[in-house]
Amino acid sequence: SDLKHIRNFSIIAHIDHGKSTLADRMIQMCGGLDSREMREQVLDSMDIERERGITIKAQTVRLLYTAKDGQQYQLNLMDTPGHVDFAYEVSRSLAACEGSILVVDASQGVEAQTLANVYQAIDNNHEIIPVLNKIDLPAAEPDRVKEQIEDVIGLDASDAVMISAKTGLGIPDVLEAIVQRLPPPKGDLDSPVKALLVDSWYDPYLGVVILVRVVDGQLKVGMKMRMMASGAAREIDRVGVFTPKPLLTGVLNPGEMGFITAGMKDITETKVGDTITDDKRPATQMLAGFKPSVPVVFCGLFPTDAAQFEHLRDSLGKLALNDASFHFEAETSAALGFGFRCGFLGLLHLEIIQERLEREFDLDLITTAPSVVYKIHMNDGSVLDLHNPADMPDPVRIAKIEEPWIKATIMLPDEYLGSVLQLCTDRRGEQIELTYAGSRAMMIYRLPLNEVVFDFYDRLKSISRGYASFDYQWDEYREGDLVKLSIMVNAEPVDALSTIVHRAAAEKRGRALCERLKELIPRQMFKIAVQAAIGSRVIARETISAMRKDVLAKCYGGDISRKRKLLDKQKEGKKRMRQFGQVEIPQSAFIAALKMN
Ligand code: GDP
Ligand code: MG
Predict the structure, then answer these.
(1) Which of 1, 7, 215, 597 is most buried, by CB atoms within 10 Å?
(2) Residue 41, pLDDT above cutoff 60
(3) Residues less than 5 Å from ion ligand 2, measured at CB
(4) 460 Cβ closer than 6 Å to some ligand 1 atom
């Protein structure tokens, strides 16, 4: 269809404000799926997404909508994730659209990610349609929330659309507003082909699938395309759109979004943000692309079974293709053997990747303590980026250590203000600003990132009963009084559990870690000492007393099936442990040990 009848838009919102549900309603209303195929949050197609009820991958759908003016419009919708760790997915969706629907829960109001997302949309020159959702709820206060949108965001909310994505109320008004208020895309059919590589993933049947937004020219089956940054050239064998079911169309015109395949198996050729052009008549200039994502949290991933190393490498490659914000490189550890150092946007991101590796790729993994990137200034003037606490040089050779700081925005009902201020102070935070919008407080704080990555978000949620929201952006590197806290189990150092901590917090943290490990490491046939140390100085110690680990002792008589079950269970437990000297440490200990207050 011609450009005039195309609208490309993202749905942006704070988590749980109803983006995915609104997308469902629009798909239903435009007939993309029949009622048998329709299920809740239909775009959240990955198992983990459905179980956790969150959107991880941005998704795109083409809808056909006949507007009140009698014309048929092609609406390309991108559903985006809301959690702070997935901001990178959001930024990519926004770059591929001209407008945004800003969904705000009318019973909750503006939250930290509402702000973060709306500012990104403004940065992308988007036209923004405010939508107040959940007006079916008795607690909905649309007038108050409209005022808040104007006061806090500075967006005109007088013609905000009132809807209930749950009941379907107001959905036709949203579709009309998209057609009337959002601009059509610009583009030229006769110019050399330029298409933005928005996303790519590996499909076991199709090979590499590439999601594109065509800017100029036409992509069609049989064309030899070239990816300008990677240089790879391939013949396109499929062109289609998601309705959300994949539908082959054969061509994609300027302004349109869809997918292409080219019989590719090599995941390294498709670089997200690259420009796709026609090999015969290439464009001279690339599109702006995306800002590269910078991972802020690192950890080691090691296969429990060393034979799975290659399988792990392969799986990480497939995941990295699907998730451009995830980085990895090979690493070896004395205790854990061959594995990978991986970079993430946050701790939730880390957990999701770890879970996907275990579920989708059937891997058993050891995850080492997450760490941020420190800058180590050596006495000889050189500066080292430290991604792994185990690689910390001898302190006598170090002149100073710098750590990353962030600027956090926290929004919360004022009744929780006292405890959240306390949390920020405990985490070495510095207050920059404290303002009110009605009964909600907005705090802006500077915090060291290493105090945030472990469990700050979980703590914040629990002390505010889930009502506080949080978002952060990079600030700067600053010098800190930091030391390496090592953990020894039975006198053997466990590198995977070493962390870098502030000197003032080292003792408390060391004690807590030892106590936690005492709970997490199962008793064995002999006594085990768990110690925390700074350099050679032991600052905390716990002892795990010995036990006879005969699970069968619990079985009286000869109930064979029960015995079998217990033995299987024990075997299962074994698989997920790692031998340290003589001691087995369960996989769960490595991350759980770091998640404490
Ligand atoms: P997302 O995180 O923004 O994608 O939010 P979801 O679409 O997953 O919705 C979060 C929760 O809010 C789900 O339990 C939905 O059923 C619920 N929800 C969404 N829209 C409405 C609505 O209009 N009214 C009510 N009462 N609940 C809604
Ligand atoms: Mg969602």
Answers:
(1) 7
(2) no
(3) 19-20, 55
(4) no
For residue 82, the ligand 1 atom closest to its alpha carbon is 2
Compute the distance from residue 165 Cα to the ligand 2 centre, in Å.
12
- The verdict on the CB of residue 482 being under 6 Å from ligand 1 is no
Residues 6 or more apart whose Cβ sits within 8 Å of residue 546: 523, 524, 525, 526, 527
User: Peptide bond before 282: cis, by omega within 30 degrees of 0?
Assistant: no
Q: Which residue has the higher pLDDT, 75 or 491?
A: 75
CA distance 59 to 146: 28
Percent residues over pLDDT 70 in the chain: 83
Q: Which residues contact 462 (CB under 8 A, 6 or more apart)?
A: none
Lowest mean pLDDT among 69-78, 326-335, 481-490: 326-335
Q: How many C-beta neighbours within 10 Å does residue 297 have? A: 24
> Is it the case that residue 482 has pLDDT exceeding 80?
yes
Question: Separation of 21 CA from ligand 1 center, angstroms?
Answer: 6
Instruction: List, in sequence order, the alpha helices (H) in 128-193.
Output: 142-148, 171-181
Q: Tokens for 311?
A: 């399988």
Nearest ligand to residue 163 Cα: 1
d(CA 27, CA 373): 43
Tell me the one-letter amino acid at 496.
A
- The single-letter DSSP state of residue 371 is B
pLDDT, averaged across the chain: 84
Question: Who wins on pLDDT, 524 or 401?
Answer: 401
Q: What is the pLDDT of residues 412-422, one digit of tens each?
A: 888 999 999 99
Residue nearest atom 19 of ligand 1, based on CA coordinates: 18
Ligand 1 neighbourhood includes 134 CB (under 6 angstroms): yes
Query: Over the stretch 309-365, which tens digit does the pLDDT of each residue have?
Result: 999 999 998 888 767 778 899 988 766 788 999 998 877 788 888 888 988 899 988
* Tokens matching residue 150: 């104007």
Cα Rg of the chain (Å, integer): 26
Euclidean distance between CA atoms 452 and 465, whole angstroms: 18
Mutate to test the pocket of ligand 1, among 21, 43, 102 (most ligand atoms within 8 A of CB): 21
**CA 59/CA 364 separation, integer angstroms:** 29
* Choice from 25, 26, 166 to test ligand 1 binding pocket (greatest atom count within 8 A of CB): 166
